[in-house]
Protein: Cell division protein SepF
Organism: Microbacterium terricola
Amino acid sequence: MSNPLKKTMVYLGLADEEEVYEEPAPVSRKASTQVAEKTGTVTPLHRPAVVRQPAVGTVSEILTVHPKQYRDAQVIAENFRDGIPVIINLSQMSDADARRLVDFASGLSLGLYGRIERVTSKVFLLSPEHVAVSGDGAVAQADPESVPFAQ
């Protein structure tokens, strides 16, 4: 038993001493095509030729959502992905679900290069990349860890 990984796994109880781990032999390209020929044709994954991009221009719609449960996040994600600004009012949610939804919305806005801003303690604005938001004074990004909810 000269493999340090094996020794560690045995020590932690993740493996038995008598088990032998063998790595599969590398399969050559010729062998893999022979297997494919024997089993049938391989269908490649088809990806959409055009990736849907939100229209850059004037904003003609803003969606306001009053989620009651975390599963309402799908509506928020679908509309934000389409380039529609979303106002989320968390006043009808429990504190735990509201924090979870703010975490989700923060990741969504980060992943799609948008912004999330706190309007009040339980109202947030998700604005896509192509939408500029202006207001009175400095606008701070919402930090999910610092969101104060009524206790």
Observations:
- DSSP finds four helices and four strands in the chain.
- Residues 137-142 have pLDDT under 50 and may be disordered.
- The beta strands are 63-65, 86-89, 115-120, 123-127.
- The first helix runs from residue 4 to 12.
